[in-house]
């Protein structure tokens, strides 16, 4: 009787192990299929890695990408923390791309996201093909629906912005350099092949020293102040494309920087810059025509 019970336990254990093994195989095959289907990286991009030229290594990467994409759907904070602050290598780039592919509104192919890059309200962020989000960049979009702040608000319209307020759109081939902050509560569009240099800041919403009615109130520059003592200015920011924003520069709400224009280092941009210009300074002024 004891021998029979032992044999039955061994048989049940073998059956459960077989079922578990087959389940893992099925999950692995599905994750590999999903990783390939996502097409996060083109074959030309992957061929830059000597290892990925071999089919077994490509399959392993597809498996890791697929598993990461599925894990991101559960929004486990430990996974996001691990991918954000570790794995500063090719595998980390692939897994971060897979993770954010599932979370962003849109992400194209061959997008590089480096260590420390963070995304707030990622469902309203779009990134085009071949863009590079460098180390410790902070991208802030806004939630769908109403605004989450209070106070006296002045809206600075920008007809060049064709998207919804709160959206952040980064075009193809853009480079957002280390330690850049882009705050898109009022909306930000960055056209194709634009470079935002290290330490720069782009704001589409900011506190202001006076209210929309210019009342004689000493407003406070902090969201922690009572609402009636805060004044804010909001306006979408647009980089029309092929632009450069120099090191440690600041762009404030409502500004459009015209196509092909470059902004010098440590500039303070509060007014529109026409296309094809070189501009610099605090406040930013046009220095010359880029093609003159």
Average pLDDT works out at 84
Q: Which segments are poorly predicted (pLDDT under 50) over 5 or more consecutive residues? A: none
Q: N-to-C SSE series?
A: HHHHHEEEEEEEEEEEEEEEEEEEEEEE
Number of structural units classed as domains: 2
Number of helices: 5
Biggest beta sheet attributes? 8 strands, mixed
Oligomer: single chain
Name the helicity range: 25-40%
- Under the CATH scheme, the architecture of the largest domain is 3 Solenoid
Q: Please report the first level of CATH classification, the CATH class of the largest domain.
A: Mainly Beta
CATH fold node name of the largest domain: UDP N-Acetylglucosamine Acyltransferase, domain 1
Q: Strand content of the residues, in percent?
A: 15-25%
Spatial order of the strands forming the largest sheet = 2-5-9-12-17-20-22-23
Can you count the beta strands? 23
Q: Structural class of the helix and strand makeup?
A: alpha/beta
Q: How many angstroms separate the termini? A: 99 Å
Please state the CA-atom Rg, rounded to the nearest Å: 25 Å
At the fourth CATH level, what is the homologous superfamily of the largest domain?
Hexapeptide repeat proteins
Give the helix/strand layout.
Elements: H1 2-38, H2 43-46, H3 55-73, H4 77-85, H5 90-101, E1 106-107, E2 112-113, E3 118-120, E4 125-127, E5 132-133, E6 138-140, E7 152-155, E8 168-170, E9 175-176, E10 181-183, E11 188-190, E12 195-196, E13 201-203, E14 205-207, E15 231-234, E16 237-239, E17 244-245, E18 250-251, E19 256-257, E20 262-263, E21 268-269, E22 277-280, E23 285-289
Parallel strand pairs: 1-4, 2-5, 3-6, 4-8, 5-9, 6-10, 7-15, 8-11, 9-12, 10-13, 11-16, 12-17, 13-18, 16-19, 17-20, 18-21, 20-22
Antiparallel strand pairs: 14-15, 22-23
């Amino acid at each position: 009787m004891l021998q029979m019970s032992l044999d039955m336990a061994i048989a049940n254990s073998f059956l459960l192990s077989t079922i578990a093994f087959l389940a893992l195989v099925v999950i692995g095959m599905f994750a590999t299929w999903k990783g390939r289907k996502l097409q996060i990286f083109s074959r030309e991009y992957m061929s830059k890695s000597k290892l990925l030229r071999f089919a077994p290594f490509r399959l392993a990467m597809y498996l890791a990408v697929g598993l990461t994409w599925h894990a991101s759907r559960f929004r486990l904070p430990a996974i996001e923390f691990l991918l954000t602050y570790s794995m500063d290598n090719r595998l980390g780039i692939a897994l971060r791309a897979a993770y954010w592919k599932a979370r962003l509104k849109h992400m194209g192919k061959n997008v590089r996201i480096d260590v420390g890059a963070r995304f707030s309200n990622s469902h309203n962020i779009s990134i085009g093909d071949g863009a590079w989000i460098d180390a410790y960049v902070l991208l802030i979009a806004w939630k769908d629906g109403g605004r989450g702040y209070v106070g006296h608000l002045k809206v600075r319209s920008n007809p060049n912005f064709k998207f919804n307020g709160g959206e952040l759109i980064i075009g193809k081939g853009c480079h957002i350099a280390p330690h850049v902050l882009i705050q898109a509560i009022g909306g930000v569009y960055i056209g194709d092949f634009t470079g935002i240099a290290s330490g720069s800041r782009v704001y589409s919403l900011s506190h202001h020293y006076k209210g929309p009615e210019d009342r004689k109130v000493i407003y406070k520059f902090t969201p922690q102040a009572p609402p009636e003592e805060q004044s804010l200015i909001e306006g979408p920011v647009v980089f029309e494309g092929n632009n450069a924003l120099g090191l440690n520069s600041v762009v404030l709400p409502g500004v459009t920087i015209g196509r092909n224009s470059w902004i010098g280092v440590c500039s303070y941009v509060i007014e529109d810059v026409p296309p094809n210009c070189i501009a610099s300074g605090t406040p930013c002024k046009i220095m010359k025509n880029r093609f003159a």
